[in-house]
Amino acid sequence: MKKYKENTFNVIDQQQSILQPWQDPRVLSRYRTRKLKNSLFKIFPIVSLLAILYPLLDILYMFAYKGVQVISFTRLTGLTSGYVGLANEIVGTFFLIALSSAIVIPMGVSGGIYMAEFSRKSKYTEMVHFVIDILAGVPSIVLGYAGYLLLVLYLGCGFSALAGAITLSVLMLPYIIRTTELSLNRVPTSIREAATALGCTKTTMINRLTLRFALPGILTGILLAISIAFGETAALLFTTGASDYMPTGALCNSQVGYLTYAIFQFSPFQSPFASANNLAYLAAFLLIIIVLSINIIARIGLRRLSKI
Amino acid sequence: MALNKIIIIGVIAAAVIIGVGSAIFFTNGNNSGNTNPASSITATNPAGTSTLSAVTLSETGSTLLYPLFNLWVPAYTAASPNVHITTAGTGSGTGISQASTGTVQIGASDAYMLDSQMSQTPDMLNIPLAISAQQINYNVPEIPASTHLNLSGPVLAGIYNGSITYWDDPQIKDINQAVANLLPHKVIIPIHRSDGSGDTFIFTQYLTKSTPSWSNAIGFGTTVNWPSVSSSQAALGNGGMVQASAQNKYSIAYIGVSFFDDAEKAGLGYAFLQNKDGNFVDITKDNINSAASALVSQTPTDERISLVYAPGPNSYPIINYEYAIVKKTQSNPDTATALSTFLNWALDPNNGNSPQFLDKVHFIPLPPSIVQLSKAQIAQIQ
Amino acid sequence: MQHRSADKIYKYVTAMGGGNALLFIFVIGAILVIFSYPSLVVNGLHFFSSITWNPHLSGEMITMNGIKTISGASYGMVVFAVGTLISSALALLFGVPIGLGVAIFLSQTAPKKVTAPISFLVEMMAGIPSVIYGFWGFIVLGPFLLNVVEPGLAAHLSFIPFFNPPVYGYGLLASGMILALMIVPIIASISRDAMLQTPKELKEGAVALGLTKWEFIRSMVLPFAKTSIIGSIILGLGRSLGETMAVAMVAGGAVNYLPHTFFYSTNTMAAFMALSMDSAFTDPSGMFISALVELALVLMIITTTVNVIARALVKRGFISSETVIKI
Question: Distance between CA atoms of A258 and A2, rounded to whole angstroms?
């Protein structure tokens, strides 16, 4: 059986294995075209793969090369003022992410719990699914515009951490709701049945059993959402502003610097100084490291999840 | 037991929703200018002798002025540790609008506020801090590096509106007799900025003032209605302009003087420009100075004046004041004092306006009488 | 009794979470409509038919239909709409075959040992921030196209329309290629998942019929995964239509002219919105901002439509829930 599987497609691909009793030239020529097509086809996936891996590796190589050249203790711990370092952008990015996580995680997780545990297949759930699809597709620059108009301008929060964090949370929400719901849905029914049989209330069942089972999945979703937030620029351009100093901690009317803006602002097309350009390369390098490591952790979590 | 958890989760969710809402409104309450509690005692004087209150000033705006602020601020705050100044390069438009709404104290801008903008927010001061200039770069390999092409407003307008398409156009040959035979029959690629920019503002102002047809059809602004020229190209940022011009042979670009060294390194030539008196002048410190001084007597007390196309035989035509846009009435006296002190420092020829800072970005210090006008404006800050 | 009310509280508290999504989408829509209202009134249909985007900032402020604007200002989105559509179309042109090729490789032809690392790399691509793609595009891709690829294309393919010199580097081709890089992971991972679900019976049938691998994929795998593949392509389209930073850095930023060849500079709605907001702040009438918001509104309507269709298709197809999470 195993042998058969391995050779599945070699029956025709290898000429000697075809023993045609008739030698009709038409059949032969058709066979040759088929074989030609097949061998042409064999190249196609490889070519596509190279077409996509080459730029990817080039990007990784370029930023790793430049990044290693410019990385230094002062550049990591100094303030941007005077193009010394990126400390405030690093802190600012984490500050923004922490703030938006604090806003969006309770929202998203509870939204997912409601749909998976209280109202499966209801009108409400259908509508939320639909809205999440829309929300996940709204371009981030449009979110940035809406955030600017509502939070910065209309509510007067100014360019600030809060305006940026709320805009980011809108970006993150669909991912978190969706993963929470999916992970909860995958919790085996037997567990729910057992809980009900033991007389658990729904609340106890969710908190003590199903959430615990679904936790790896939920965390994965949160991590993916966070990695998207780390790389976001357009949504923050007109909501967070920029700053060369450490975030003050004030939520409104205090601009915050962040890594993606450093890439945009200090790259060679905006700044004539090599010291600034080096910061852009370093910011890109750091961002790649952060985003990739979050992704790796999340994927490992995801793989484990699918093994449950 | 279970109830505890519900309550915890409920409280978290409710707190987040309420917290977000109220945070906006609470912080909104004191948005009149100072986020960071300006008078809060955040740090004591390192000397420990007196406990002065620390003041935070925020600056945002022009990406052209940003590098200068980045040189000024560390030097200034080293000398006066009680003042904390934050800087950011976000664009002139952002600088003006942020200063107008009072979310920052200093809005940096390449352009002064137009009358229509002033009528919306009459409380604003436009204080020149330094003089910047713009060079016209070209990439024509046939022209040796030792010579510079002569270009005039009408010729540039012709190039940018598509009526002059080749480098060997008679109009270009006319003003370049010495190298007329070297000019190639190649299509000119005019490059303009793709993002809104103060550089576009002063360049189009030069065209507007020197060429009536440009003035009627296009006008000036940080973004203008560029005529459709099939060979034209746009680039992002001054660095993008340098790169685009370096890569496209036979291109022409207007580039902020901060990028002078970059453009030279990229092998681009720069042009002598025709001024109001009809002379073709180099972009030297002296020529920029003479343009600025030519307009000193006409400068109004609010200092909103364009320096573009100044009269005088040696005046370089495309220069501008770099402005600090500030509100007359500050939210509290400490901020007002700190703001005036800093601006006065920046204007002082021995401090902020010294070559030690300005030379690095190729800016020119203000003429003494303009410094006096600026100081008079700073005195209005309360 | 206490427990049941606890359940109720729990239910209502959690219901608020999902309700926020409804609230957000409503607020975003409302904000965009309210702030684009002046532009909707003043510019009217002209907005959709004109190629001229001219804020005319040096003009006088006037009042038109009770709304402040600048005399001589004209706002038309055609250049940006065309740029958005063509660059996304190019992205699909490059991205779809490559994405499908990668999906076929990963699901059908790859040796077992390399599947995992390559799947991993492809998924990494989806995680790289767009500003980094843009930075790379600006430093590496643009000059490479200008100096190597485009002169070659222009020299040998100029008999085909849209491949005529001159060449510029930053422009339609560069935007299309950068966008293709960004949508390939989407197309590849969803299509791979759908292809992996091809029933064993079909494969056995194909072997029994003596089909070559190509014939098997073309006649069985692709039709089986069709819905998901189309869904993934439309999803990629949605992503590329709304992509901002990467395109802003390589598009060249054309205003007021339409591209004549694939080498021309161009501009997309999203990129223009990101780069023009600062200028818009200097328009005292506020019409510039309003027009940009109208652009945002139009972009949102387009991408929403595309996305809803795509997601419906993807979900109707056969893919695992992990992939649904990722998109």
Answer: 55
- The hierarchical CATH code for the domain C78-275 is 1.10.3720.10
Q: Which of C10, C17, C52 sits opposite B6 (nearest CB)?
A: C10
CATH number, domain of A158, equals 1.10.3720.10
Distance from B112 to chain A by nearest Cα, in Å? 22
Q: How far is A88 from chain B (nearest CA, A)?
A: 11
ipTM given for this complex? 0.91
Q: Are C194 and C231 in contact (CB under 8 A)?
A: no
pTM listed for this prediction: 0.86
C70 three-state secondary structure: strand
Nearest to A81 among B12, B63, B87 (CB): B87
CA distances from B209 to B111, B161, B220, B314, B323 (A): 16, 15, 10, 17, 21
Q: Pseudo-torsion of CA C220, C223, C225, C229, nearest 10°?
A: 140
Long-range pairs of B306-310 with CB within 8 A, sequence gap ≥ 24? B306/B112, B306/B202, B306/B205, B306/B209, B307/B131, B308/B202, B308/B205, B308/B206, B308/B209, B309/B153, B309/B205, B309/B206, B309/B209, B309/B210, B309/B275, B309/B276, B310/B275, B310/B276
Residues of B in contact with C253 (CB under 8 A): 193-195, 234-236
Q: How many CB pairs under 8 A join B and C?
A: 155
Q: Rg of chain A over CA atoms, in angstroms? A: 27
Q: Which of B379, B249, B254 is nearest to B326 (CA)?
A: B379
* Residue C33: per-residue pLDDT: 95
Note the pLDDT of residue B23. Answer: 43
* DSSP string computed for B94-115: HHHHHHHHTSSSEEEESSPPPH
A14-65 pLDDT, tens digit per residue, is: 555 555 556 677 777 888 888 888 888 888 889 999 999 999 999 999 999 9
The full set of domain ranges for chain C reads 78-275
Best probe of the B interface among A101, A150, A239, A253, by most B CBs < 10 A, is A253
- Asked if the C-beta of A149 comes within 8 angstroms of chain B's C-beta atoms, the answer is no
A280-307: per-residue pLDDT in tens?
999 999 999 999 999 888 877 766 655 5
Task: Return the ∠ at Cα B42 (arms to B41 and B44), rounded to 5°.
Answer: 80
Q: Are A261 and A237 in contact (CB under 8 A)?
A: yes
Which residue from A176, A165, A65, A63 is spatially nearest to A115, judged by alpha carbons? A176
pLDDT of C229 > 60? The answer is: yes
Which superfamily does B135-291 belong to? Periplasmic binding protein-like II (3.40.190.10)
Contact criterion met (CB < 8 Å) for A182 and C3: no
Inform me whether the C-beta atom of residue A168 falls under 8 Å from chain C C-beta atoms: no
Q: How do B272-274 and B83-86 pair as beta strands?
A: unpaired
CATH (residue range B4-131+322-378): 3.40.190.10
Q: What is the pLDDT of residues A154-197, one digit of tens each?
A: 888 888 899 999 999 999 999 899 889 888 888 888 888 888 88
State how far residue C327 is from chain A, nearest Cα, in angstroms: 8
Distance of CA B316 to the CA centre of its chain: 18
Q: Do B67 and A159 touch (CB under 8 A)?
A: no
Pick among C14, C104, C307, C320 to test the A interface (most A CBs inside 10 A):
C14
From chain B, the residues in CB contact with C173 under 8 A are none
Question: Which domain range does residue A146 map to?
Answer: 88-261
Cβ burial, residue A197 (10 Å; 0-12/13-18/19+): exposed
Are B4-131+322-378 and B135-291 in the same CATH fold? yes
